[in-house]
Amino acid sequence: MRVTGGNLRGRRIRVPPGAAVRPTSDRVREALFGRLGDLEDVRVLDLFAGSGALGIEALSRGAAEAVFVERSNAVAAVLQSNLDALGLSTAGRLVRAEAAAGVRRLVQEGSVFELVLLDPPYQDAEAIGRALRALASSGILAPRATVVVEASKHAPPPSVEGLALVDERRYGETVLHRFEPVERT
């Protein structure tokens, strides 16, 4: 797999072996980042990070920093090697935790993000719901943040109070769902 745009365009990203990680295809990544537009100085959270392809793509396209949350030690080791090989060790930080627990940890650190990318296992609807609820209730999202969930067309993410669905785009079996935080009164 390769980075599709930005200053690292064409550079390789290692993918952990086996079925534990389902990397986002080049076509879907190009479409996603084309729709997101300018990422200059944006702070990015990559939940269910896997190989780190989404967060690495954001860094390549100008994001200021990216935090990668991954629960598997073996997968996290590959992700860290990708960050090291691409010279992103200072801009990218790895947090080893389940997605919702990682959000709670980042809240304690006072982190805030303008872009959150979730590429969860398609079959784990419960983990997706936990992660979205943690994001919506955490205060970790900047006022105009964008949350993007990649999901199977057969298993859309659940509706979560505090997040409004603003766009959906289908690419074959994959659907990108874009949410924004709902302003609380």
Quick overview:
The chain has helices spanning 26-36, 53-60, 73-85, 99-108, 125-138; strands spanning 43-47, 65-70, 92-96, 113-118, 141-152, 163-171, 174-181.
Q: Proportion of β residues?
A: 25-35%
Unreliable spans are none
Q: What do we call the CATH homologous superfamily?
A: Vaccinia Virus protein VP39
CATH class wording: Alpha Beta
Provide a count of the helices: 5
Give the end-to-end Cα distance, rounded to a whole number of Å.
Answer: 44 Å
What string, H for helix and E for strand, traces the elements in order? HEHEHEHEHEEE
Average pLDDT across residues?
92
- Could you say how many structural domains there are in total? 1
Class computed from helices, strands and strand pairing: alpha/beta
How does the major sheet shape up? 7 strands, mixed
Could you name the CATH topology? Answer: Rossmann fold
CATH architecture: 3-Layer(aba) Sandwich
Helix proportion range: 25-40%
